[in-house]
Each structure stands twice: as C-alpha cells, then as structure tokens.
Design goal:
The complex is a heterotrimer of chains A (about 120), B (about 350) and C (about 160).
Chain A (H helix, E strand, L loop, with lengths): L3 H25 L3 H17 L3 H8 L1 H4 L2 H19 L1 H29 L7
Chain B lengths: L4 E2 L3 E3 L5 E9 L1 H4 L9 E2 L10 H19 L9 E5 L6 H10 L3 E3 L6 H14 L5 E8 L1 H8 L15 E2 L2 E8 L18 E7 L14 H20 L8 E4 L3 H14 L8 E3 H5 L10 E2 L1 H17 L5 E9 L3 H5 L6 E10 L1
Parallel strand pairs in B: 3-4, 5-6, 5-7, 8-13, 11-12, 11-14
Antiparallel strand pairs in B: 1-2, 2-10, 3-9, 7-9, 10-15, 14-15
Helix pairs in contact in B: 2-3, 6-7
Chain C lengths: L6 H13 L5 H29 L4 H21 L3 H8 L7 H14 L5 H8 L5 H23 L5
Helix pairs in contact in C: 2-3, 3-5, 5-6
Classes of the chains: A mainly alpha (about 120), B alpha/beta (about 350), C mainly alpha (about 160).
C-alpha cells in the first residue's frame, strides 16, 4: 500500500506531465491526436535512454498512467525481449508488455459502440 | 443585351423579384439564443426522432420547405424549382430532401455562403423569366458538421478561443417574380408585401493564407471585404446608402476584422453592421466566437431579418453570407482556407 | 505542398494574430494539472486496491491498472461525461490513458451508424491508430538498437 506522501508524488508527477501536454496544446496548436503520438514516442525514447525509470519510481502511477507510461512499457518490453530472445524479442517484446491495454481498448471500444449512442455537445 | 450587368461582378434585377415569405427551423441552443423567439419551430431533440443526425438534417430541410410553402399558401409540389445546399459531402441533405419533395431542383454548394448563393441564383433566374415561384434553402446541423469536419462528438477535446459553433437550423425563402400580386392585408400576416431583391454581387474566391480550420472567421473576412467593396464600386454607392450590412458567419473575430479592413479602405460600416454568427447565439452561451455554418445565415435571414424588414425597421440591406471552401482533405494536406462571399441587395418597395 | 505566403497574406496573418482572443493558458494549465493529477491518483488507488485483492507481479499490476482505467474511460465516454471532463481539463484528460481510451471509444460509437464492420471496425483507431503505429514502431526500433548493443558485448 502506498503512503500519503506517495500519493502527493503521484499527483505532482502526473499533473506536471499533463501540464506539458497543455502547454503544447495551447502554444503549438497541435491537435490532441498529435499530442498523443508525441507523448507515446517521447515515452519510448526517455525509457530507452533510462530517464523514465527513476521517474516511475518517484511518481508511480503518476508516471505510468499518462501516455508516456504506455511508451515506457513498450520500450521496456522491447528491451527485455531483445535481451532474452534477440531480434525476435525486439519485435514481440513491446506489444507483449502492453497487450492487456491494447486488447482492453479494442474490446471496450467495441462494447461501447454496441451499448451507447453518441449525444450532441452543448 | 447584357443590360442586367452592372460593373465587374454585379447584377441588377429590373423586375425586382420579391421574397414572398420565409421559414426557419432551429435547434434547441439556437432557440435559447437572442433571436430564438422568431423561429417557426425549435427542435427539442436534435435527432428529431430519426436514427441518425444526417436524417434529422434532411427532415429539417423538408419540413422547412413545407412550412414556408404553407405560409405562402402554395403547394410545395407546384414550386418551379428548389435551389439549395448544405455542408455535407456531395450535399446529401439537400439532394435527399429534393428527392423526397419531388420538386425540380438545382443543388448548390457555397459552403456557409449557400443562402446568399441560392437567393442570388434564384433572383437571376426569376428576373430572367425562367422561374416564377421557387424556394431557396440552406441549412446545417451541428452534429453532422462536427463529425465530418472535426472530431467525433464524444471526444474530450477543447475548442480554441477562435472556434465557432455550427448552427443547427435550416432557413427557406420563397422567391416570386416581381409582378406577383399575392399580397396580404391581414395584420401579422405571414406573407411579406414589400421585400424585394434588387441586385447582387457574385463573389470571388479570396485566400489570405489562413490554415487554422478553427479560425474560419478570419479566413472568410477578406472575401466579405472583397465582395462588399466590389458591390459599392459596381453600383457606385457608399456604405451610407444602406441601412444595414449583414455578413453570414464571420463571428466575433471575423466581424471585427471585416469592420477594420473596411475602415482601412475608407468604408465605415461600424454602426450598421451585423453578423449572423454574433446574434444567433448570446455571448453567455459560451460558444467562443459565435455561430457558423450554412444554417447560421439562413435562420437569421429567414427567421429574423426578413421579418424585421417587412415590419419596416430598415429600408434596404446588403446580405452577404460568407463561406469557407475547405474540405477535411484539404486541411490534412496543409492547404490554406479560401473564402467566398456573395451579396444580395434587399429593398423595401 | 504548402505554398509560399505572399507579403499580403503575411501581413493579414499578423493582424489576425494581434486581434485573436487569447486562450487563458495559465489558468488552463492549473486545470490540466489538477485533473491530470487526480486521474493518476485514481490509477494509483486502483493499483493499490488491486494488490490487496489479488497477488500481482510488478508487470501484471501495471496491466491491471491500465485495463481498469481504460474501462472507466470507456464508461465515462459512453454515458457522455468524458467530453464534458475534456472541456474542463484540456490536456489533463487527454494525456492519461483514459484519454487514449476516449479517443478509441468516441469514434467507435460515432461510426456505429455506418455499420459494425466498415463503421466501427474501420474507424475505431481513426484517432488512436497513430499512437499504436508510432509507439510500437519506435519500441521495435529501440529493441533492435539494444540487440546491437548486446551483440557488441555490452551485456549489462
């Protein structure tokens, strides 16, 4: 179980990552899809050069819940795959590590389309 | 020949076709807006009992024509022609509505400028004697436009401060030849006795390099300036000769830019200028820069302005609906947004 | 390709930028910070509660948290709440994995009217597809680079 201080770090790290996204959104007029692509790629790169791991230790879910964390999982999976299985592992590792999230997104997305109807915005 | 042409890009209608009546249907948010009480019908639910928004938009089209014909005491099946368009790909709302109505039909696409484009074309055909009684129509639907041009509706994205909200609504005007004698002496009659279209200016496509599709007002304002100054030059008039100058959907930013650019050219429009996008929604409705879409100028003209004109609140007016001629493909390919504006001159006679 | 702007167009662009209403970036950053922080704390809570209920390895705990958050993102999108949260939070609800879920669920729901195969099936990843393309491709690249490093004897 995490302590209260842990939660504060989760809040701060997660919040700050979102602020970076907001600054990009406000100042560069990038669309949200581009921001997401940028963040996931950034997560992969930061993870590959070993910067993301200390951040994850400090921020826990604050670092894993934002999409950079998804990139981090992808990169760690690929690195581990490369270590254990060589080139084949480099291909399979990333998707293996994130398979749960991807499958959940597909299944829940489909279910949502069956059960819900979009409503207009006010 | 060519006696109906004036100057470089304008036309004059010697027989002055008359707008016999008009009707407008709008969505609930538009109904809560400043001119909401003028509309003939306000939708409570924007799917209107249909199973898609596209079908709801089509139904709005059909019903608006029917209401307008009802007011004019004519059978919609006897219209000479239906002229109109909408914002969807291949103008499906107008096409399918025309299929269901079964009237002769000319489909037009002028993006958000469709209302003035259809009135201009219709007035020319009526003046030339090719049509005697026809309907001009334009409309848009927030939800269909949003999914075609922007993002799915349930996506949690934020609007930029320059974004405008597409108006849900359709407006229809019945245009008859100038010598038509159907008048009404009843009080609060739904027929207009005095509103004539006396001239118009065909707009040029103007592109000032704006690429942000969330900033349509700025993309279209130069086109409105071009058309308006063209009109003044062709008819040899000044802004003082008109009681009211109306633009379609420039919104708050575009409207300010329009006034500013006109002022730079020595044309002062400030105290008689009105933008449909600014009056269809109140600022308190949090729609950022105002309304947009074909429906914006259509419901404002057909629901509100023509009624005010018939009541005698102003003698003549220039109505310029403005359109942004973009498509999702052109936006993705990084093209800038060309704008267009067509003008018609309305006069009480 | 993009055309070169004429001097007139440049001048107009400058004028537009001057008159443009400004988004309140500072205030919006605070909103993004708070909502992003809250979503991450919920993620931490899910992970902690999950650990009490099940026995997890480090990896499966992460996957569990992601799946639950994606489920919540789906549910909130489905009942029409996520777009309202998004209007308030901006990037605060786009960047977390719930925003990723939202970007899959929103088009999936929307394209239902075009049918389940070519509507839902084809458009589900309309917005989120690029994330997977770039995420997976860059992870493979990283894996290959590490392969080379290991092959060169850097067995760390």
């Amino acid at each position: 179980m995490s302590s209260f201080t842990d939660y504060i770090w989760v809040f701060v790290v997660g919040g700050l990552i979102c602020v970076v996204g907001q600054l990009l959104l406000s100042y560069t007029r990038l669309t949200s899809a581009r921001i997401l692509v940028l963040f996931v790629t950034l997560g992969v790169v930061l993870s590959a050069i070993g910067v993301y791991e200390p951040l994850e230790e400090l921020g826990k879910a604050g670092a894993t819940v934002p999409l950079t964390g998804f990139g981090h999982s992808l990169a760690q999976g690929a690195i581990e795959g490369a270590k254990n299985e060589g080139i084949l592992g480099a291909f399979t590792g990333g998707v293996k590590a994130t398979a749960g999230g991807i499958a959940a997104a597909v299944v829940f997305g489909y279910l949502a389309s069956v059960f819900f109807t979009p409503k207009t915005k006010k | 020949m060519n006696s109906n042409r004036v100057g470089k890009q304008s036309v004059i209608f010697h027989t002055a076709p008359r707008i016999l009546t008009s009707a407008a249907i709008a969505g609930d948010m538009e109904g809560e807006g400043p001119i909401g009480t003028y509309f003939d019908m306000i939708l409570e639910d924007d799917t209107w009992g249909e199973d898609s928004w596209e079908k709801a938009e089509r139904k709005m089209y059909i019903e608006t024509v029917k209401i307008a014909c009802d007011k004019a005491k004519c059978d919609y099946r006897k219209l000479d022609c239906l002229l109109g368009g909408d914002l969807l790909n291949q103008i499906i709302s107008a096409n399918f509505a025309a299929r269901d109505l079964g009237t002769p039909y000319l489909g037009l696409y002028g993006a958000c400028s469709t209302m003035s484009e259809s009135l201009l074309c219709c007035a020319m055909l009526t003046d030339g004697g090719y049509l005697t009684q026809s309907a001009c129509i334009a409309g848009s639907h927030f939800s269909t436009a949003e999914r075609q041009f922007r993002f799915p509706l349930e996506l949690g994205s934020q609007n930029t401060a320059t974004a405008q909200r597409t108006v849900t609504g359709t407006g229809c005007a019945i245009v008859v030849s100038g010598d038509n004698e159907q008048k009404s002496s009843e009080q609060n009659s739904r027929i207009y006795n005095t509103v004539h279209i006396v001239g118009g200016t065909i707009g040029k496509v103007v592109d000032m390099g704006i690429t942000d599709s969330n900033n349509m007002g700025a993309a279209m304002a130069p086109a409105a300036v071009s058309t308006f100054t063209g009109l003044l030059a062709d008819f040899n008039k000044t802004a003082d000769d008109f009681d009211l100058i109306v633009t379609g959907d420039l919104g708050r930013l575009g409207g300010t830019l329009f006034c500013d650019m006109c002022a730079e050219l020595g044309v002062d429009v400030r105290n008689k200028y009105l933008d449909c996008g600014n009056i269809v929604f109140a600022e308190s409705q949090k729609v950022d820069c105002g309304g947009s879409g074909c429906g914006c100028s259509a419901v404002t003209l057909c629901g509100y302005l023509l009624k005010r004109m018939e009541e005698g609140d102003f003698k003549n007016a220039v109505f310029m609906a403005t359109g942004a001629l973009l498509s999702p493909t052109s936006t993705f390919q990084g093209e800038s947004i060309p704008g267009i504006a067509h003008a018609i001159i309305l006069e009480r006679r | 390709m993009k055309q070169e702007k004429t001097p007139e167009q440049r001048q107009y662009e400058q004028k537009v930028n001057e008159m443009m209403p400004k988004s309140r970036t500072g205030f919006q950053c605070i909103k993004a910070f708070i909502s992003g922080g809250i979503i991450c704390c919920i993620g931490q809570l899910i992970s902690d509660v999950g650990s009490l209920m099940f026995t997890f390895t480090e990896k499966s705990r992460g996957a569990f948290t992601s799946i639950v958050l994606i489920f919540l993102g789906m549910l909130l999108t489905g009942i029409g709440v996520y777009d309202k949260i998004g209007k308030f939070s901006g990037a605060g609800s786009i960047v977390p994995i719930t925003g990723f879920a939202n970007s899959i669920v929103a088009p999936a729901m929307e394209y239902k009217r075009e049918g389940y195969i070519l509507g839902v099936g084809a458009n589900m990843f309309k917005l989120a597809g690029p994330v997977l393309v770039y995420g997976i491709a860059s992870s493979v690249l990283v894996g290959l680079i590490y392969c080379i490093i290991y092959a060169l004897g850097g067995k760390a």
